[in-house]
Design goal:
single chain, about 550 residues, alpha+beta, eight-stranded antiparallel beta sheet, five-stranded antiparallel beta sheet, 18 strands, about 50% helix, 2C_system_His_kinase
Length: about 550
């Protein structure tokens, strides 16, 4: 009884698994057909519209006009449309120009006359411009204006089919879409290689099955099969029929798939080899396995417990080693912090000595002289070094990821002049001018500002330093202006607000438990700051005539 129930369950599971595998394969096949050439019809129609615009006003079109006006349009489509391997224009009187992808190169096939001496020529092209180069060779012409697909395009405006290209001996089977021009002066066609589609199918894992695909006219696209493909083409496309060949039974699934506007019918053959016997054998094997498992499970339980104990011991050992490594890293970090603190004390002492010497030297020189100006610049650089040292050595701020901004009043115009004066000697050595452009003079009207002058100066120094580094000749312009904040301007509240409005904002944000309410209130505070008459937005630009910074930097 138990054996029968187990066998039935296994049969049901196998049937369900087989159906899932078949459904998955059908889905993969249809996705390949749907997405490999998704927009061929629209691309061909658009190309036909562009070509038609060149010849609508011409009663008689000559090959010279095709080569000079239409051929560049065809080459643009040939070089930009993905996966296309043939782009052609064929006039109603037989004139032809086509770009084709060959085995190792691209070439053009054209017919420059439609009279009694109707000849096709093949000639290589320039890969970048599409212009003909080399010598033209004669090729066997085809009477394309009398083909079924040419007449179908003239009659129905658009047609799609699978057929060989126009490449002579090197041609291959293509999915071709042909669109008639509105002026009825020819057709335009795009061809996409069938081998790209079949290559994607070849990568499918059919799990021992076979796949056959054919067109509505009976042209078979054979996919890696050792059997006779024609025997697997049913008269009507239906699911569930069984075919026996060479002693093997196959269950067939048939459906219709459209690729690049061409309707294709495919048959998916799944092997049907004694599933019932296989399921019975599998059930018997499972019963035997369960009996063996029931006999030996105590031994397995003991082995698993021993392995679990060993694994726990290994984990404890790894945890102890990790804790020791963490403690060692913390000691190293503490030693590093102490070393930084000692270095900070020594560096600050040296900088203080330099500052004192600069002050003594300024007392000995004439005010306003070049030496005095240089000493002032040295004093500014020393203060900048102290600011950089404070930023680098403040380990608690760096480790927490929060660098607080200092609010102080400073003269923005004076800060810009200090930046220009600092880089002026360095730029003069490279014969590069450093120019301060105050734009409309709005900076001078709003020069007294409040903010972190050190961070702003550090940012400007980095930008100008890069400009000096990568500029060989010419000039470097530092441009700045002030403007009222616009609706898209971002207003960032200070990390340690001192004003009453900011303190009230911080208090309310801390008391609020709803995230959306906090965000709305923060936006309200930002809007009130933006609308304040004393709030200005400053814009800084560093423009240079250099080659720029490489992408890898």
């Amino acid at each position: 009884m138990i054996w029968c129930i187990a066998t039935k369950n296994i049969r049901n599971n196998v049937d369900s698994l087989t159906e899932d595998i078949r459904s998955g394969l059908v889905s993969e096949i249809e996705n390949i057909g749907r997405f490999i050439y998704p927009k061929t019809n629209s691309s061909t129609i658009s190309l036909a519209g562009v070509v038609d615009s060149f010849i609508t006003n011409n009663n008689n079109i000559h090959f010279t006009e095709i080569q000079t006006q239409i051929a560049p349009v065809l080459f643009h489509a040939y070089s930009t449309i993905p996966e296309v391997s043939q782009v052609s224009y064929i006039s109603t009187d037989g004139l032809l120009f086509s770009y084709i992808t060959g085995i190792n190169t691209s070439f053009a096939v054209f017919a420059n006359s439609s009279g009694g001496d109707y000849t096709w020529y093949t000639q290589t092209i320039d890969q970048k411009t599409g212009l003909l180069n080399g010598d033209a060779t004669r090729s066997q012409p085809l009477d394309v204006t009398n083909t079924d697909w040419f007449h179908a395009a003239q009659r129905d405006h658009i047609t799609s089919f699978v057929g060989t290209g126009l490449g002579g001996e090197d041609n291959e089977r293509l999915f071709q879409t042909v669109v008639s021009l509105d002026s009825k002066k020819g057709v335009v066609s795009l061809g996409f290689p069938v081998k790209s589609f079949t290559s994607d199918l070849n990568r499918l894992n059919l799990r021992g099955g076979e796949l056959y695909m054919w067109t509505k006219d009976g042209t078979v696209l054979v996919y890696e099969s050792s059997l006779n493909a024609s025997s697997f083409i049913p008269r009507d496309c239906s699911f569930g029929w069984v075919k026996e060949t060479k002693g093997s039974k196959f269950e067939a699934y048939c459906s219709v798939l459209e690729v690049s506007g061409v309707p294709l019918t495919y048959t998916l053959m799944s092997p049907n080899k004694g599933i019932g016997t296989s399921i019975s054998n599998a059930a018997m094997y499972m019963l035997i396995f369960m009996a063996i498992y029931a006999c030996f499970w105590p031994l397995g339980f003991v082995v698993c417990m021993v392995r679990a104990a060993r694994r726990e011991m290994d984990l404890r050992s790894s945890l102890i080693n990790q804790m020791e490594a963490t403690q060692q890293a913390e000691r190293k970090s503490m030693n590093k912090s102490q070393a930084f603190a000692q270095a900070s004390h020594d560096i600050r002492g040296s900088l203080a000595g330099i500052t004192g010497l600069i002050d003594l030297c300024r007392q000995e020189v004439k005010p306003g002289s070049d030496v005095d100006a240089s000493l002032q610049q040295m004093n500014v650089c020393t203060k900048d070094l102290v600011g950089l040292l404070n930023s680098v050595l403040d380990m608690s701020k760096i480790e927490s990821g929060k660098m607080l901004l200092e609010e102080e009043e400073f003269n923005l115009a004076k800060l810009l002049e200090d930046v220009v004066d600092f880089f002026h000697p360095m730029a003069m050595k490279k014969k590069v001018d450093v120019v301060l452009d105050l734009h409309d003079g709005s900076i001078l009207k709003s020069s007294n500002v409040r903010g972190d002058s050190g961070k702003l100066k550090q940012i400007l120094n980095n930008l100008v330093s890069n400009a000096v580094k990568f500029t060989v000749d010419g000039h470097i312009s530092i441009r700045a202006w002030a403007q009222k904040p616009g609706p898209k301007s971002s207003v960032v509240l200070a990390s340690e607000p001192k004003g009453s409005v900011s303190m009230f904002s911080k208090l309310m944000l801390c008391m609020s438990k709803d995230q959306s309410s906090s965000s709305a209130y923060e936006n309200e505070i930002s809007n009130s700051i933006r609308n304040n008459a004393n709030t200005m937005e400053f814009v800084f630009e560093v423009d240079d005539t250099g080659k720029g910074i490489p992408v890898e930097m």
